[in-house]
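thread from #wetlab-drylab

HS: before we spend reagent money on co-crystallization trials with NAP, can we at least see a predicted complex? here's what I'd submit
DV: go for it
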Amino acid sequence: MVKARKIVLVRHFEGQPRTEDFRIEEEDLPPVKDGQILAEAVYFSVDPFQKSHTAMHNVGDTFYGAQVARIVESRAPGFPVGRHVVAYWGWRDRTVADVGSGRPEPPLYVSPPRLVPHLGDLPLSLSLGVLGMPGNSAYFPLLDICKPKPGEVVAVTGAAGAVGSVVGQIARIKGCTVIGFAGSDAKVKWLKEDLGFHHAFNYKKTDVSTALKQAAPDGVDLYFDNVGGDISTAVMSNMRYRGRIVVIGAISQYNDLEQQKLVNLPFTFLAQQLRLEGCAVARYHDRWEEGISQLTKWVREGKIKYRETVTKGFENTPRAFIGMLRGENFGKAVVKL
Ligand SMILES: NC(=O)c1ccc[n+]([C@@H]2O[C@H](COP(=O)([O-])OP(=O)(O)OC[C@H]3O[C@@H](n4cnc5c(N)ncnc54)[C@H](OP(=O)(O)O)[C@@H]3O)[C@@H](O)[C@H]2O)c1
């Protein structure tokens, strides 16, 4: 009998998650049936949505999230032993799962298990980062919704994270002036010196509005909002006429029990004739490979650089998750099993 270890939720979070909110358990796995595979996790992803989508988590369930796993047994055509899949099976080290055509339709925010394309010499973990969901969460909302033009000014918050670091680099490739906001001087240095951001600011030390008036005196054309809250209010108040805003995250608000209110924005939206759209990347499932193949090309050409914060050890996964929420990660936070 094959055994699996899994990390289950012991109680719902109160404010920031704590390591005591999780427990490791073991279970016996069933034999692999037709249309199924047995896979062993190589990396877990730790993502902000795991904090925000509390409805996904039932106490006692395996904590929901993405992993990249190696197929070790297969009775599913198209999923050969030795290849890897990205799947939302939660924090568990072995999984028997349906991948055949008869599998149940996933809910909107869940990707079906996807075979990882051959990455050559690129690290496998990138399939959870720049060459996976976070990469596409930068690629499609920026290019398909905001449609940046050369010479425009793009502001991005959460700029040194998995999504934000890619947003800024794509905007730079498209000929825009890029302004990033991140939570430490070391992150700001990385954005400016390594990733080619034109301006970057530590939002914990700098007044966002003052910084924007200095870096973009004529205003911001495109705002890619990863964080919500006061920083976003400040950016949205410094938009240029007919500016476009895409909201993909609100990490500054994921601990708030009460829904926050938009303050003083409606008149700005009218006066500047702004457009705002929210976007869940699941919307782009049908075009998934298009984003991944373009991002892979840019990474291979050295036009997009990546950085990962890798925590080692299955049992350290909750700590990696909590650290990411606190801003300890540069680029994508992953756990290596
Ligand atoms: N809509 C979608 O489909 C979709 C898909 C992927 C991600 N997202 C969202 O996009 C955002 C970024 O995700 P990611 O995976 O790239 O995470 P990430 O940026 O790699 O990691 C989270 C970062 O959030 C920052 N942060 C934490 N608390 C903050 C606060 N109060 N104010 C401002 N920044 C704070 C921290 O960086 P600092 O050191 O800079 O504070 C931390 O490193 C999240 O809001 C996430 O929920 C949405």
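DV: The domain at 133-281 is CATH 3.40.50.720 (Rossmann fold).
HS: ok that's useful, forwarding to the group
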